[in-house]
């Protein structure tokens, strides 16, 4: 997986050091998404030259896909978001509606690449496995693959099986992370939303949103890592992800904002 950001040991070149930045407060639900595209353009234009990861805890957001906006129930789905305290936004990449909040992390990986389309599919598999490995290191038995009835279905979703419920009742797997990718000439952005804590608001808003959109799904697939391992938190996951990305160099958020201001 990480050969995309650093050479393997068999190469003589030194490892590429990835820039790691932790965003401060949310810029706003729509603004957070837009800033990812701004950073992609900065990477394409050579303003950002090293591979970079931007990690942030988002404000409560439901990110709709472009296809969702063409459904008759889209306006009602937007109203459902607001009723649950989630902002409805439309993303430029990805499939169906996905929800995240302060108990989640969004991970934007940006990288210059003269042949950015090559490896497009491999990146989905590689990043999915990296997130699953970080979860496994934290005690969550995560795997990669679509689960039946999941929201915003994807071949490379990260999910975890749940322990039996009260009375030994079986429970199916829940989705932990979804991924999307945007490619421009000379650069790519791989964006992932990972739900770590506080699953109840995620489930509640998605139930009403998918009902409004008229899309079939299984609400039991919406959850968080804490469904499998109570007590896990965002900072533990973030620390594990940073360790997986070694070597990294911290780039202060304020420095990034000075270099690449939001539009």
Task: Explain what the structure shows.
The structure is a single chain. The chain is an alpha/beta fold. The chain has helices at 29-44, 74-83, 120-137, 199-213, 234-244, 253-259; strands at residues 18-22, 52-56, 61-64, 87-90, 98-100, 104-112, 143-144, 158-160, 174-184, 187-195, 248-250. The protein has an 8-stranded mixed β-sheet with strand order 7-8-9-10-6-2-1-11, with helices on both faces. Strand 3, helix 2 and strand 4 form a beta-alpha-beta unit. The chain starts with 17 loop residues before the first strand and ends with a helix. The model is unreliable at 1-12 (pLDDT under 50).
Brief digest:
This is BPL/LPL catalytic domain-containing protein. By secondary structure, this protein is of the alpha/beta class.
């Amino acid at each position: 997986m990480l050969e995309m950001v650093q050479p393997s040991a068999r190469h003589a070149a030194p490892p590429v050091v990835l820039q790691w930045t932790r965003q401060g407060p949310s810029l706003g639900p729509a603004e957070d998404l837009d800033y990812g595209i701004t950073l992609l353009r900065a990477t394409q234009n050579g303003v950002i030259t090293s591979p970079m990861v931007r990690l942030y805890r988002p404000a409560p957001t439901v990110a709709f896909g472009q296809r969702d906006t063409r459904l008759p129930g889209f306006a009602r789905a937007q109203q459902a978001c607001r009723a649950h305290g989630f902002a409805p936004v439309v993303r430029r990449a990805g499939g169906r509606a996905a929800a995240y909040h302060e108990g989640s992390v969004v991970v934007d990986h940006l990288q210059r690449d003269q042949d950015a389309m090559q490896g497009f599919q491999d990146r989905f598999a590689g990043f999915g496995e990296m997130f699953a490995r970080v979860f496994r290191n934290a005690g969550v038995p995560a795997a990669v693959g679509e689960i039946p009835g999941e929201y915003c279905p994807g071949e490379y979703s990260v999910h975890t099986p749940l322990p039996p419920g009260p009375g030994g009742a079986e429970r199916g797997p829940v989705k932990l992370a979804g991924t999307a990718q945007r490619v421009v000439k000379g650069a790519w952005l791989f964006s992932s939303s990972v739900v770590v804590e506080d699953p109840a608001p995620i489930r509640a808003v998605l139930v009403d949103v998918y009902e409004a959109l008229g899309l079939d799904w299984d609400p039991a697939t919406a959850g968080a890592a804490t469904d499998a391992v109570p007590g896990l938190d965002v900072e533990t996951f973030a620390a594990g992800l940073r360790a997986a990305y070694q070597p990294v160099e911290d780039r202060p958020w304020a420095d990034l904002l000075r270099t690449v201001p939001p539009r």
